[in-house]
């Protein structure tokens, strides 16, 4: 089976989000980057399926060279090779078009992504890629098993879940508990250094959206403390003061 | 030329978040001097769909085919594209949800439309078409221009204020709609559906009572459930709680779980890690109950009680019961 896992390169979940250049650029200063947490789940399940069924696992990132350490990490976790499309992933449509282009040349059986990137949190790249390739896409996927040419998928729906059986190829947006995040071991780190990381240039696709300006949320007012001994007064305050009951 | 609004049904009723999306779409139609048309997929009574009119929609296209009762992003996207072509719509609006995003994405790819998900306010149409969206899980916002001819917007809860007094009495007209559905959209077979129907869904709930590791174990959840019942609230939890299987996964709130935006969020024994806050920062009012006065959650709270959840919760429940 040929598997493609698409990863993002995003600020660590604890990173402070600030902007520079008159609020037109994200401030990367002092920010630690990671593989997107959902992508990390997709990668972990991809590695398990690759080990169980043989075949190959390629990781793909659309982005600039500063993502290479995260791509190497994915190789250390168990991907066989990597492709980086050398372009800033500013717009979902543009990013999806790059991924669809790579996929159309390689006939993957399974394209695994995260449920959403945690920087721009769109949750749309899998659907865009699925449609561009003319294959089915599902998200968020909590469990995935493959038997022959059929995937059994547990997908989260509003207030519950459902189990689907669908033929490959598929594009899936993954989330926990599909697998446990994997940490690279020493051997993985050593072999990752020599695994291929192919950098390719983007194909022509105009961007259809353009971020113009960023804003931080308004500062939070002070928290009103209520003594535990008078806890019941909270309910009255919620009704008369906050007007939320 | 109308603004096309995709809505979600739950057992034939329009979801509350979708009614908000209709109100949002109707305002966009007003801004762009056109009408708002709703697309409803699956079985529903006309009397229910007519309600979209109260939120400003002129017409509802109703594809009543029973094949559409099951959530199917592939078929829904096909139907949405056909409706957009029929109506000549340049602006398509959907509510933010796993399904809404999936349908929006596939429709955008078919229509070669720019797509922005997580929109938090009405667009600025004064010169170009700009929307504000939530990014970095609510830790920031971006103003984004959409340059394509057709535009797809996926809208978050609370993007417009609707109060009952602003509702209008006109009903929407219902027009049957028969999209041609492709067999390839129905290749997946549904093995089972597990849905807790009696429970209020987190994304729809106006009040959420949520528990963390401070609740000590699944057997101690009753005081929290009691408060939720007294307030008509949904229940949620932190990630470790669902990881430990104390509570079902669909209750997990935060950066890697569900993002909620209720009027009132009550956090019981949750420390307030940044990844948890990322899922609740759209809430209007946050109450934190924690025995540790240094718990980071207090910094994000509107009201706080330093105390033991097992002493505080019964008091709140008693007070909540006496409200009614
Ligand atoms: C990439 C990543 C993604 C993550 N995503 C999420 C996410 O989506 N959602 C999420 O929730 N977490 C997420 N986490 C985990 C997060 O960092 C925290 O570990 C988690 O939120 C802590 O859960 P908690 O507050 O329930 O537990 P704890 O941190 O253990 O806090 C328990 C709290 O209960 C209080 N307490 C104990 N006993 C009592 C009592 N009797 N009465 C009152 N208070 C009491 C304690 O003072 C403490 O503050 C993520 C972490 C990472 C690294
Ligand atoms: N720049 C990118 N490079 C590779 N994969 C991406 C990129 N952006 C998004 N993806 C994939 O698409 C998923 C959904 O992203 P998004 O629609 O941005 O929330 C992510 O979890 C990734 O798996």
List the keywords.
heterodimer, A: 245 residues, alpha/beta, Rossmann fold, nine-stranded mixed beta sheet, 15 strands, 32% strand, B: 324 residues, 2 domains, seven-stranded parallel beta sheet, 8 helices, 25% helix, globular, binds flavin-adenine dinucleotide, binds adenosine monophosphate
Topology:
The complex is a heterodimer of chains A (245) and B (324).
Chain A: E1 2-6, E2 9-11, E3 19-20, E4 25-26, E5 33-35, H1 37-53, E6 56-62, H2 68-77, E7 81-85, H3 92-104, E8 110-114, H4 125-133, E9 136-147, E10 150-157, E11 160-167, E12 170-174, H5 186-192, E13 197-200, E14 209-215, E15 224-225, H6 233-240
Parallel strand pairs in A: 1-6, 1-8, 6-7, 7-13, 8-12, 9-12
Antiparallel strand pairs in A: 2-5, 3-4, 9-10, 10-11
Chain B: E1 3-6, E2 9-10, E3 13-14, H1 16-31, E4 36-41, H2 46-49, E5 59-63, H3 73-87, E6 91-95, H4 98-111, E7 114-119, E8 130-135, E9 140-146, E10 151-155, E11 173-176, E12 189-195, E13 207-211, H5 222-231, E14 234-237, H6 239-243, E15 264-268, H7 274-277, E16 285-290, E17 303-306, H8 309-321
Parallel strand pairs in B: 1-4, 1-6, 4-5, 5-11, 6-10, 7-10, 13-14, 13-15, 15-16, 16-17
Antiparallel strand pairs in B: 2-3, 8-9
By CATH, the superfamily of chain A comes out as HUPs
Low-confidence stretches of chain B: none
Terminal Cα separation of chain A, in Å? 54 Å
Give the overall average pLDDT of chain B: 93
Which residues of chain A form runs of ≥5 with pLDDT under 50? none
Structural domains of chain B: how many: 2
Which architecture of chain A per CATH?
3-Layer(aba) Sandwich
The helical percent of chain A reads 25-40%
Based on CA inertia axes, which overall geometry of chain A fits? globular
- Structural Rg of chain B: 21 Å
- Major sheet details of chain A: 9 strands, mixed
Under the CATH scheme, the architecture of the largest domain in chain B is 3-Layer(aba) Sandwich
**CATH topology category name of chain A:** Rossmann fold
**Could you tell me the number of beta strands of chain A?**
15
Mean pLDDT of chain A: 94
